[in-house]
């Protein structure tokens, strides 16, 4: 089913009204950097060529080579170009064109791609070419390969791989082949770094520009290393704690991640000023990663992912293979453009191709900067990965990591290869893989290369071409898999063994999956001074632990000993911290309380609050639970033995008031019987009095667990839908 097309600039207002777009992105950035995606229609819904698609052909009949294929700007120059093309296979995207646009001036864009309907692949013999103008210079012609990516469930439309530019302001497209093979709805999407809406480029509004002849980009035209002579970007740093704090008295919360500007490590822009805007999250200097990740990873919040474009619910599966990719394009981008390019790829995958999210789990630019792609990739539990759309039929059970650039005839940079290898080794180690150079069985979904259900022995680190009919990750990129595997093995070795051995001054955690007197799981996490929290941080249905140290929060997605998966700063050291699923998306996040004011955050990232609410009194004890079973956690306040329960995150009076227990009891909240509703339990020493309904009266269950001095935590530790107890020592 084709994804919805013409959003248009008018879509910004209703999206804002619905609360789907961050106000800072839709208002501030629209005025300065946001722009619509431009759509150039090449065929109609019946496969007929459009006026735009044939406009360039009119110029090929006047200059006069044999067969009437000469073009301006001159016969000698044109013949030289044709001869050059012939020397590398005889293809000339202008002289041999079935369809050819004029060289067209357009608004600045960073990512481009062709889409069509009626078939997953382009017919044999039908090829699409593209060239772009960057900084006043026309690129070579690039063959755009039909994408071998896509969701395993086949949701979305057919298209080419994303084509990455360094900031282009003019474009020319060519189609070579038989007219009978033209697909329906063939169009070219031109995506800026901050896409908002879409617009069709009508023929009467298009301006042609001069374009000198250029040859076809080929593997034979080898080039130097992409980053020779370039300055590496500034190291990524963790954000300062109090800078991320929501300030008391803020009139409105904001969803934008805090950001700092990038140091002058690379060029500040290219044609048309398409470098990253100061208003776009400056991920290059604001990554909030630490712990077990081997390199800083720039999160979705930090590169500016618009949550309204994500319609694909994350699914976490056991995974123990890595698929390496590259993108298409000119390789001319700067380090300051990388975050915007990732944002453009996200729109192309999520909206243009209709997948509902970006296909890659991670992307690594030629400067070594690592970006989180598919939602949930950084927070997946050890041995699991969120299913992506990077390799059709082989997404389930793999992690896809893409090198940003075209590596057919040039090599990825050494930093890029190193960080791809480190990320691969980190993932494989957590999946229990000990050899990055080995192979293991892998079972495919339906692909063009393998039958559905077919199992083969696949290298644990493979190229995209190993699992599908594609040239990805390019001939040179593919030749570097040995180097990536070697780095991955070093990373595996460096991470050492994982065990539940007590670390120095760490906290001992005992979790019970039932109501017995003996713990089901014992492990160590956090420092002796850490506050331990519990929540479902990745939406897989299993609660795991997090640690709070002042304003820093770290979390893990498995109940095992080890370091934090990631750390970030939020709030102030004196805040009371609450955990809950505030927006009903299946994942828990944080809120901080100051007096009777609550600052809610809907992602596990640094930055400002998403919502601010006043409820209760400063002296109340606050509880969090899903009291009505609607999937969203809300607040209750306790005054002595009386509980004032609210079923929405709003100010105002309580929806229900009940009395339970004694004023001196410690109170816990959980879904004790698996009915989807949270209720209360009171603790007296090591005895717990559990109630399965929010009513006054006697307990439904009384259990003894742990010691009187233990700190109690509550969670669904095994994912069976019921909450049980844990203690922290």
UniProtKB/TrEMBL annotation:
Gene Ontology molecular function: N-acetylmuramoyl-L-alanine amidase activity; zinc ion binding
Keywords, ordered alphabetically: Signal
Source taxon at top rank: Bacteria
Q: Where is the signal peptide?
A: 1-28
| Domain N-acetylmuramoyl-L-alanine amidase, first and last residues per copy | 311-474
- All residue ranges annotated as the Peptidoglycan recognition protein family domain in the record: 295-441
**Any one Pfam family match given in the protein's UniProt record, by short name:** Amidase_2
Region feature Disordered, mapped onto this chain: 241-275
Query: Which biological process terms from the Gene Ontology are attached to this UniProt entry?
Result: peptidoglycan catabolic process
Q: Which SUPFAM superfamilies match?
A: Integrin alpha N-terminal domain (SSF69318), N-acetylmuramoyl-L-alanine amidase-like (SSF55846)
Q: Which SMART domains match?
A: Ami_2, PGRP
Q: Which CDD domains match?
A: PGRP (cd06583)
- Name the protein family: Belongs to the N-acetylmuramoyl-L-alanine amidase 2 family.
PANTHER family associated with the record: PEPTIDOGLYCAN RECOGNITION PROTEIN, PEPTIDOGLYCAN-RECOGNITION PROTEIN LC-RELATED
Mind telling me what this protein is named? N-acetylmuramoyl-l-alanine amidase
């Amino acid at each position: 089913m084709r994804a919805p097309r013409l959003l248009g600039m008018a879509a910004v207002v209703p999206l804002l009204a619905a609360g789907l777009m961050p106000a800072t992105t839709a208002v501030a950035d629209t005025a300065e950097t946001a722009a619509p995606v431009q759509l150039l229609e090449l065929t109609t819904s019946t496969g007929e060529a459009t006026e735009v698609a044939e406009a360039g052909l009119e110029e090929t009949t006047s200059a006069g080579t044999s067969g009437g294929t000469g073009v301006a700007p001159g016969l000698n120059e044109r013949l030289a170009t044709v001869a050059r093309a012939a020397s590398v296979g005889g293809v000339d995207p202008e002289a041999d064109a079935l369809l050819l646009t004029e060289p067209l001036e357009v608004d600045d864009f960073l990512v481009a791609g062709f889409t069509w309907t009626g078939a997953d692949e382009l017919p044999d013999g039908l090829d699409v070419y593209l060239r772009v103008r960057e900084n006043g210079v026309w690129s070579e012609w690039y063959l755009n390969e039909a994408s071998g990516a896509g969701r395993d469930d086949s949701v979305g439309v057919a298209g080419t791989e994303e084509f990455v530019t360094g900031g282009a302001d003019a474009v020319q497209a060519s189609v070579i082949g038989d007219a009978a093979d033209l697909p329906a709805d063939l169009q070219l999407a031109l995506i800026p770094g901050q896409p908002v809406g879409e617009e069709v480029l009508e023929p009467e509004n298009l301006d042609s520009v001069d374009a000198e002849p250029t040859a076809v980009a080929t593997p034979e035209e080898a080039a130097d290393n992409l980053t020779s002579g370039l300055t590496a970007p500034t190291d990524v740093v963790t954000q300062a704690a109090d800078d991320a704090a929501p300030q008391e008295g803020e009139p409105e919360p904001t969803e934008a991640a805090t950001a700092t500007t990038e140091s002058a490590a690379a060029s500040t822009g290219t044609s048309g000023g398409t470098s990253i805007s100061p208003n776009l999250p400056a991920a290059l200097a604001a990554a909030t990663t630490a712990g077990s990740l081997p390199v800083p990873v720039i999160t979705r919040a930090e590169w500016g992912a618009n949550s309204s474009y994500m319609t694909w619910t994350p699914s976490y599966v056991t995974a123990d293979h890595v698929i390496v990719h590259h993108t298409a394009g000119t390789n001319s981008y700067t380090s300051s453009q990388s975050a915007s390019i990732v944002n453009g790829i996200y729109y192309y995958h999520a909206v243009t191709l209709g997948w509902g999210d970006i296909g890659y789990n991670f992307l690594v630019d030629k400067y070594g900067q690592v970006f989180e792609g598919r939602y949930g990739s950084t927070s997946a539990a050890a041995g699991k990965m969120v299913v992506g759309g990077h390799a059709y039929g082989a997404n389930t059970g793999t992690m896809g990591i893409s090198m940003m650039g075209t590596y057919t005839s040039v090599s990825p940079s050494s930093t890029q290869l190193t960080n791809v290898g480190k990320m691969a080794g980190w993932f494989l180690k957590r999946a229990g893989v000990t050899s990055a150079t080995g192979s293991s069985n892998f079972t495919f979904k339906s692909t063009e290369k393998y039958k559905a259900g077919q199992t083969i022995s696949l290298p644990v680190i493979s190229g995209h071409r190993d699992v599908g009919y594609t040239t990805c990750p390019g001939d040179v990129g593919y030749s570097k898999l040995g180097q990536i595997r070697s780095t991955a093995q070093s990373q595996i070795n460096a991470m050492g063994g994982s065990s539940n051995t007590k670390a120095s001054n760490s906290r001992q955690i005992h979790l019970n999956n039932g109501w017995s007197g003996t713990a089901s799981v014992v492990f160590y996490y956090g420092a002796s001074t850490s506050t331990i929290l519990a929540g479902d941080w990745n939406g897989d249905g299993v609660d795991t632990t997090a640690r709070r140290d002042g304003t820093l929060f770290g979390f893990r997605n498995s109940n095992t000993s080890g370091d934090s998966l990631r750390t970030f700063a939020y709030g102030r050291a004196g805040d009371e911290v609450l955990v809950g699923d505030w927006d009903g998306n299946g994942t828990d996040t944080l809120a901080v309380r100051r007096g009777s004011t609550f600052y809610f955050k809907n992602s596990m990232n640094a930055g400002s609050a998403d919502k601010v609410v006043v409820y209760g009194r400063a002296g109340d004890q606050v509880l969090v639970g899903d009291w009505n079973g609607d999937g969203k956690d809300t607040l209750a306040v306790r005054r002595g033995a009386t509980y004032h329960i609210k079923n929405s995150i709003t100010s105002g009076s309580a929806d229900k008031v009940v009395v339970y227990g004694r004023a001196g009891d410690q109170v816990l909240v959980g879904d004790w019987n698996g009915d989807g509703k949270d209720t209360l339990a009171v603790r007296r020493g090591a005895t717990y009095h559990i109630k399965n309904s929010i009513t006054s009266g006697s307990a439904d269950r009384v259990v003894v667990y742990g010691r009187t001095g233990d700190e109690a935590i509550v969670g669904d530790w095994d994912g069976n839908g019921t909450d049980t107890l844990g203690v922290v020592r």
